[in-house]
Amino acid sequence: MASTQKHAQTTSAFAGDDRYEMLVQLSPDALFVLQDGMLVYINAAGVRLLCGESAEELIGLPVTEVLHPSYLAKAKARIADMLESGQSAPSVEQKYVRRDGQVIDVEVCSAPFMYGGKPAIQVLARDITARKAAEDALHFSEERHRLAAQEATRAKDSLHHEKIILEMIALDEPLKDILREVCLGIEWIVGQICCSISLLDLSGKRIQIAAAPSLPDAYVNAVNGMAIGEQAACCGTAVFLNQPVISGDIASDPLWIGLREAALAHGLRSCWSVPVRAASGTVLGALDVYYAEPQLPSKDDLNFVSNITHLVGVAVQKDRVERSLHESEERYRSVVNCLAEGIMVQARDGTIVACNPSAERILRLPAGSAVGKKDLGLRRWFAEDGSEILSSQLPSHVALRKGEAILNLTMGVETAEGSIVWVSQNILPIRQAGETDVSSVLISFTDVSAVKEAQQRLKFLASHDSLTGLPNRAFLLERLGHALSLTQRKKHRIALLFLDLDRFKHVNDTIGHEAGDQLLQTVTARLSSCIRETDTLARLGGDEFVVLAEGFDDASYLTGLAERMLRVISEPFSLRGYEYYLGVSIGISVHPDDGDDGNTLLRCADSAMYAAKEGGRNNYQFYTQELNTRSQRRYHLEKNLRHALNSQQFLLHYQAKIDLPSGRIVGAEALLRWRHPEQGLISPVDFIPVAEETGLIVPLGRWVLEQACRQAAEWRRHLAPDLRIAVNLSPRQFQDDILVETVSHVLRQTGLPAQALELEITESLLIGDSDKLKPMFDALISLGVVFSLDDFGTGYSSLSYLQRFPISNLKIDRSFIKGIPDHRDSVALTQTIIAMANALTLTVTAEGVEEERQMRFLQEAGCHEMQGYYFSKPIAAEDFERLLAAGM
After folding, report:
1. What values do phi and psi take at 846, rounded to 5?
2. Domain spanning 147-328: which CATH class is it, in words?
3. What is the side-by-side order of every strand in the sheet holding 536-541?
């Protein structure tokens, strides 16, 4: 009977009006009636809100089981005031406890009324949990972007990583995929780490690994189920203390007493963990970073990972909220409002029905101005190739018509203020439940203007000289190839004029490189004034230029052009209050007389230019057959090189390396010399490039290595037991598959200890195929030899190879040493290189030391070793032996 009465209460609370009763039951908002501190009525939305099985289950519950304890006192006072005054109360935010124990945020409106003849309170409640989460996420997003500005060195990668995570959150990707992406992104950005995310289980006392893409399964299994506490490794301790925990050495840290064996067994030597918190501050778990070596995290890494934990917290909390929410619109809003990318929803009639602040910011629209409009004042739209897009063909309109998603589309937008913004966008059609027609589209986009500008700049630099803006060699050859193709279809005459500035090097050394660059820009302007629009002026590099002349009538145009260029270059150049004079030597080749392809024409023009220089400079010469002599000379040089290698015409000179603290000789660099029986000593500058091109450098380098090691071994036995020998290796030698075997064989054959052999390489080698080079380096290092980086500072700006390759010594290029201590830039660069090397525990050797004051400066700067004419020129073995015997 009691059950029947209870049922009657739930079904006839508003029985006086069936229509009202139906509206109450269909209302999306929860409606409760409270009487005498108990629930006496609840609608269907209320049952769902409280996660009840039915209204019958919930009728009769005291309000204390619904309302969170922290709100009870205020709620009782509100109810008393309403019953006494008969007036409704303002809406407030409260927390309810659902039947499954989950605490949710609600917005509540209350009013007194008579129910069953007795005073009661009518309560309307709306679930705002997702909105609160979205507000917290938005607050975090704003804070994240403030911090991102302070991390310029890794801003691009970290923002891209965070964008991916936010996109995954926005697209409701599974939590395990999001956390895996977080770990992979951190591992990629920080480098040489393993990352994992551990979360508290339902008990709140143990942790489970939620993501660990790079950790061994056995270690993950060891962590899973571990109780949190004050000595629960880094992850369990960080969760227990709700603060970051850092362990610089797992082997000795008492925090790791329970997991030390498992960690060390899998090569994990240090670790640090940062708590993952919900927006309320509640600990959800920890983000853990592992190193393979004992070390402490940098401040930047700590800040970066701490920022990411907020995203992890957002992802975890959102996942938990969304599992209990049924309103998809609320899920969408909780993500959109915290995205840095622009989000817009456009209805079928073109009206913007939703727009986040980022979208308005990217499109340069006033805040809050987009929603409700069809025309945003945008002027024009452009495809990625620059062509204009008609408004009827805009991607959003196409997606509305076809009902298909458009992904990863880049387009340009001309804003109302006239600027062009490039965006990368995704457009997803939206259909209402149960309908097949598209009702609207979701447009998400990011501002890629900076990337687009960089791409255009890179594209330009790939074909143009960065200093002068002229076409480079690649662009010239492309244009030349096109011009040659025209000659096959019609009478189209072409010629090349190869220009090399006379006296430029002298002037450049006199006025400095900065002023030299200005001089080259002025030269470019003068040469450009001499040519027609149909001609092409290119810069090959240094002080070399080429003019591609097309469509001329006869050779008189070429002579006139050459004379104009001679004339404009001979005029004085005014720089920094002084006048400087240059000349230009010009070589001319003509198609088809001098060649049928671009490379031949260019080579002939180059030969003619050298003939102009030999003819007194500042003149022009047409290519003639006699100029073949130069190329013949090169052929004979190659032939003589092969003969010299077999007839023992090569010898080695040695230049001492001096230890700064002691002043003793600690090493020698072996330098190759060629004593030709008829021509005398031939400079390495003349024959080494030919040896490189022909591959002769491989057997020649093998001979140098063997002779230098044999000589060093003898000196170590009789004169200098600790002497090291340095041998230069060319990039071409690293293409030799048996290089490692050759080095190993020479060391065994000569008896030289491997640690006494120093292999000198150049920076240009290290930017090659690292996948092939790294194994060769590792194999050579395993033999015991060390590597020295020659001419450091003159090559490529990226120093990442110092991490990838086992370099032990840096040799500062002589061009820097020449300028110290007088030249400010040389001083700064030299000090920076020494400081960097010391920080990386590398040895530093200064080349080209010629004065005592240079030595003093380097000694004070912390340089370790020196070589140069101040100590000794490169000398024959017997002379070097006397230096060793003298105890220098």
Report:
1. -95, 130
2. alpha beta
3. 536-541, 544-550, 494-502, 583-590, 620-622
